[in-house]
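Quick start: what a row looks like.
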Amino acid sequence: MPRLALISEFLMLFVGLPLAYRYSPVRIPALPLLWVVAGYAAWQLLRDPRFDRRRLWNPGQLPGHLASILAIFALVAFVQWLSVRRFAPQLEWSLVRQNPAIWRW
């Protein structure tokens, strides 16, 4: 694929679509929409005869990368927590305080 086509695809998917969703006059809940889009993408992959289905989920690679995955998760979680604490401290732990029943098993 030519470089310009890849840049255009990137801009459309990660800039154009989120902006169109944000400023759309029709309010559609984000999570159900994302599930539908993810389902469509999976369907397209699975119906392609050239796609190696073993590449869709390959847990064999996990042990070698688990430490780096957990380190990145911990770093991102910490940065998000610091950002909430800095920019919206009233929201820090608000779910636990306002809805304690959610945390009961």
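That is the whole record. The chain is about 65% helix and 0% strand. The first helix runs from residue 3 to 22.
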